[in-house]
């Protein structure tokens, strides 16, 4: 049930085909989990990959921006010498941000109200 229009990749062409397969493979596996955290209200998932050459060795940074109708979540510190590790760090961080936001509402009624409001706004669009 993956919607290809939701995931957008930036600078993916700067990576070689093996590295591209690593990034897209991880997001193919993790997309459903991220989408479920948003209660099905994920509007846009932007994946920005950067390659930093440090004297012949590559350092990767992966930034994710997930857009919901009411809030935008973004990662900041997913940097590693290994592309797979950097991508997994970014995915873990975005999952943590989203679950933390919904978990630490003042009470459960407020959390359900926020989720209900997110569902209504996506139906209108």
Can you describe what's shown?
This protein is α+β, with helices and mostly antiparallel strands and 125 residues long. It has one domain (7-124). 47% of the residues lie in helices and 25% in strands. It has helices spanning 17-37, 83-103, 108-124; strands at residues 7-10, 44-54, 57-67, 72-74, 79-80. Strands 1, 2, 3, 4 and 5 form a five-stranded mixed beta sheet that branches. Strand 3 and strand 4 (72-74) form a beta hairpin. The longest helix is centred in the N-terminal third of the chain and has 21 residues, at 17-37.
Mean pLDDT over the residues:
83
Overall spatial form: elongated
User: Strand tally, please?
Assistant: 5
Helix coverage percent of residues? Answer: 40-55%
How would you classify the helix and strand content by structural class? alpha+beta
Number of discrete helical segments: 3
Give the N-to-C terminal Cα separation. 19 Å
Uncertain regions spanning at least 5 consecutive residues: none
Strand percentage lies at: 15-25%
How would you characterize the largest beta sheet? Answer: 5 strands, mixed
Order of helices and strands: EHEEEEHH
Number of domains: 1
- Rounded to an integer, what's the Rg over CA atoms? 16 Å
């Amino acid at each position: 049930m993956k919607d290809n229009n939701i995931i957008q990749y930036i600078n993916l062409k700067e990576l070689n085909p093996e590295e591209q397969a690593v990034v897209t493979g991880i997001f193919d596996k993790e997309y459903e989990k991220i989408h479920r955290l948003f209660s099905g209200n994920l509007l846009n998932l932007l994946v920005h990959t950067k390659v930093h050459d440090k004297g012949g060795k590559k350092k990767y940074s992966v930034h994710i921006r997930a857009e919901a109708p009411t809030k935008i979540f973004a990662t900041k510190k997913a940097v590693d010498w290994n592309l797979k590790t950097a991508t997994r760090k970014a995915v873990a961080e975005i999952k943590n941000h989203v679950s933390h936001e919904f978990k630490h509402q003042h009470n459960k009624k407020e959390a359900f109200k926020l989720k209900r409001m997110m569902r209504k706004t996506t139906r209108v669009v």
